[in-house]
Amino acid sequence: MSIAVPLDELAEALAQRPWGYLLTVRDDGRAQTLALPTVWRDGALVGEVGRSTAANVLARPTVTWVFPGASGEEFSLIVDGDASVVGESVEVRPTWAVLHRPAIRPA
């Protein structure tokens, strides 16, 4: 089950999610995943990244940021967006967001 998150309500959905996994795409087409603290600033997700993630964003700016539910039973927040590199940070302007329930329940 998925629940769409209106973009104007995204800041509220992020309030309890201080970090997430930023997914970018490498030159060889494989995903690169980076766990990093996240800040919501002026309508964008912002996080400091290294050179390889910045290079991925410059080459392929469509990214996904995943915020897992803390207990494994909570919904995860998945945000797609258009990214840009600003200094040592990536800024992601969301284009879509959804809360998604876990498919597997913990034992």
Please give a structural write-up:
This protein has helices at 10-14, 51-59, and strands at residues 2-4, 19-25, 31-37, 39-41, 44-48, 62-67, 76-86, 89-100. With 107 residues, it is mainly β. It has a single domain (2-100), classed as Pnp Oxidase, Chain A (Roll). Strands 1, 2, 3, 4, 5, 6, 7 and 8 form an eight-stranded antiparallel sheet that branches. A hairpin with an 8-residue loop joins strand 6 (62-67) and strand 7. The longest helix is centred in the middle third of the chain and has 9 residues, at 51-59. It is globular and about 35 Å long. The model has no long low-confidence stretch (mean pLDDT 93).
Radius of gyration: 14 Å
Strand content: over 45%
Instruction: Figure out the total of helices.
Output: 2
Structural class: mainly beta
Q: What is the N-to-C order of secondary-structure elements (H for helix, E for strand)?
A: EHEEEEHEEE
How many β-strands, per DSSP?
8
Round the mean pLDDT to the nearest integer and report it.
93
Q: Architecture in CATH?
A: Roll
Distance between the amino and carboxyl termini? 20 Å
CATH homologous group name: Electron Transport, Fmn-binding Protein, Chain A
Note the main sheet. 8 strands, antiparallel
Globally, the shape reads: globular
* DSSP helix fraction: 10-25%
Q: Give the CATH topology.
A: Pnp Oxidase, Chain A
The CATH class name reads: Mainly Beta
**Number of spatially distinct domains:** 1
Low-pLDDT runs: none
List the helices and strands and how they pair.
Elements: E1 2-4, H1 10-14, E2 19-25, E3 31-37, E4 39-41, E5 44-48, H2 51-59, E6 62-67, E7 76-86, E8 89-100
Antiparallel strand pairs: 1-8, 2-3, 2-6, 4-5, 5-8, 6-7, 7-8
